[in-house]
Amino acid sequence: MVYNNPNDLNSNNSTKPEPDRDLWSIFRIMSEFVEGYDTLRYLHPAVSIFGSSALTPDSEYYRAAREIARKLSDAGFSIITGGGPSIMEAANLGAHEGESKSIGLNIDIPSEQVPNKYQDISLDFRYFFARKVMFVKYASAFVIMPGGFGTLDELFESMTLIQTKKIFHFPVVLYGSKFWGGLIDWIVSSPIKTGTLSKDDLSLFSMTDDTDEVLRIINEGFEKVKRSIAI
User: Fold this and answer.
1) What is the DSSP string of 7-73?
2) How far apart are CA 117 and CA 149, in angstroms?
3) Residue 1 or 16, more confident
4) Is the pLDDT of residue 92 over 80?
5) pLDDT for res 13
6) Which of 2, 32, 41, 108 is the most buried (most CB within 10 A)?
7) Sheet strands side by side (includes 46-50)
8) What is d(CA 115, CA 135) in angstroms, rounded to the nearest whole number?
9) Predicted local confidence at residue 83, as pLDDT
10) Is the pLDDT of residue 4 over 80?
11) Rounded to whole angstroms, what are the CA distances from 231 to 5, 26, 37, 218?
12) Across 40-54, 58-72, 182-196, least confident range
């Protein structure tokens, strides 16, 4: 029996409630973690690249994501993306052209994300939180390309985990000062000015417009932190 009315909890009916979808979902969640851990644990070192699903292949950021991923792949880093179109596709394509693995962590959403075709390893997730753990747990650096709410979520979560020492301080690189500059100006003029963040928090990330600089920052960061510890 499933109690749809809170008053039913006070009834004298001794029949035990049947397991509902919330309880059964525990096994689905567990299976996503087990499959993710088992598949990705051999990938180290890897870099997670985040960015928009809406930009076209003629975008400067698509081209940059492809170039960054290829350079990182040739340097020995597997590339992890969200598995979808646009920036994710560009990063998987760049990794596919390079020497290391190209991984897509695909998500089941109402807009029916179609996995791009440049994935050597493809995993499917129903739950965003399970997918987000995989992005962090098996990465030695993050590259944040221009994107929307999902990209912002991944950016701020990474900085929160570093700030709270849940993971090592690995490189978080924002690519595109024209895109990200306004956000950084706001962080300085509002949270830091108000006192909810400190100036030291600006050291949690780097920003550049140079694809070679992305590679340099990540290589140097990886030498400092040979293995990142995730949640």
Assistant:
1) GGGGS---PPPPP-HHHHHHHHHHHHHHHHHHHHTT--SEEEEE--SS--TTSHHHHHHHHHHHHHH
2) 24
3) 16
4) yes
5) 54
6) 32
7) 121-125, 102-107, 78-81, 46-50, 141-144, 172-175, 206-208
8) 16
9) 93
10) no
11) 37, 19, 13, 21
12) 40-54
The total number of residues shown for the chain amounts to 231
115 contacts 122 by C-beta, under 8 angstroms: yes
pLDDT confidence of residue 69: 98
User: Is 17-224 in CATH node 3.40.50.450?
Assistant: yes
The b/e string for 11-29 (b: 16+ C-beta within 10 A; e otherwise) is eeeeeeeeeeeeeeeeeee
Cβ neighbours of 60 (radius 10 Å): 12
Q: What pLDDT is attached to residue 3?
A: 45
Asked whether the predicted pLDDT for residue 1 surpasses 50, the reply is no
With a cut of 60, say whether residue 165 has pLDDT above it: yes
Residue type, 81: T
